[in-house]
Amino acid sequence: MFSLYGKRRKPDAETLRGIDTLVYDVQDIGCRYYTYISTLGNVLEAAAEHKIKVVVLDRPNPIGGVAVDGPLADPGRESFVAYHALPIRHGMTVGELAKLFIAERKLAVDLDVVKCDGWRRGDLFDRTNLTWVNPSPNMRGLTAALLYPGIGLLETTNISVGRGTERPFEWIGAPWLDGPKLAATLNATGLPGVRFVPVNLTPTASVHAKKACGGVNIIVDDWAKFDPLKTGLTVAVALRDLFPEQWETKNYDRLLVHRATYDAFKAGKSVADLMRPWAADLRSFRERRKPFLLYPE
Across the strands, what pairs with 215? Predict the structure, then answer.
């Protein structure tokens, strides 16, 4: 076994010796900076370089294949958390992304995608009747997966996003955070499909490990109405406005990878102002992805 999540992120000649077909069988969660799709891209690049066939065993996108949202990563800022010019919520399966990567990066790869049986783009994971298996230790259910495109953006800052608690990505907190004040502010926004409840926790790991933290539980009570990016930005704006001295935002752009949005956020703009400039790029992306879609709505 060779890990692709350490010093080596791309298969090399040593790891590919004697292999004629490489099979990719990994459950993604539908978010640009969840790095399994970056590994997919690296695998495809290696396959092109070493003339190896790739078979992708496709999986459903657990947060659906219709909605796309968030800014596209800035050109020239590609990295392991931004492999390609995708919005944060890309609405594609790994099989579809493999086809898009090969076409747009002009990779000479013999690709075979084994499609999912019966999945439709509008289906979230609960509609598949498949058993949830954690794709990574802190991705423990559909609610966490739905929250991740918005709440995950916070984990490059001095906020705990629940790692080291029983509610990763379903709780945020910090020693300086006033949970009742944040919950009241967020509930007053009327965000659809989600509620916020003050809860104090002490994470056992990661940010603020072993420190008592004020915070809020994030309860998604209507998956169909819930908007991950709008919710995540609303939380970020509330943190910015309520705790300007305590919340450190210098790394908030690390997963956002969109300087214009970050600059507008730092300038005190509203959530609507932050999201408005994405519209044209999202329309363009919907057209770009059309030739590679494998499933009906």
Answer: 173
Arithmetic mean of pLDDT over the chain: 97
Q: With beta carbons less than 8 A apart as the criterion, state whether 58 and 25 touch.
A: no
User: Containing H/E element for 111?
Assistant: strand 111-114
Q: Which two tokens stand for residue 93?
A: 């399966």
Q: Are strands 111-114 and 194-198 parallel, antiparallel or unpaired?
A: unpaired
Q: Are strands 171-174 and 214-220 parallel, antiparallel or unpaired?
A: antiparallel
Q: Rounded to a whole number, what is the largest CA-CA distance in the chain?
A: 60
Amino acid letter, 222: D
76: left (phi over 0), alpha (psi -120 to 50) or beta: left
Which tens digits make up the pLDDT trace of 3-20? Answer: 999 899 999 999 999 999
pTM higher than 0.70 for the full model?
Answer: yes
For the chain, give the percent of residues with pLDDT over 70: 100
Q: Pseudo-torsion of CA 41, 42, 44, 48, nearest 10°?
A: 140
Q: Which residues contact 77 (CB under 8 A, 6 or more apart)?
A: 257
Q: Where are the alpha helices (DSSP H) in 72-218?
A: 94-104, 142-151, 179-187
The rounded distance, in Å, linking the Cα atoms of 200 and 186 is 17
Domains in the chain: ranges and CATH: 13-135+280-292 (3.40.50.12170), 142-276 (3.90.1150.140)
Adjacent-strand bridge partners of 114: 57
In this structure, the chain runs to a length of 297
Task: Give Cα separations from 164 to 152, 202, 213 (angstroms).
Answer: 15, 8, 12
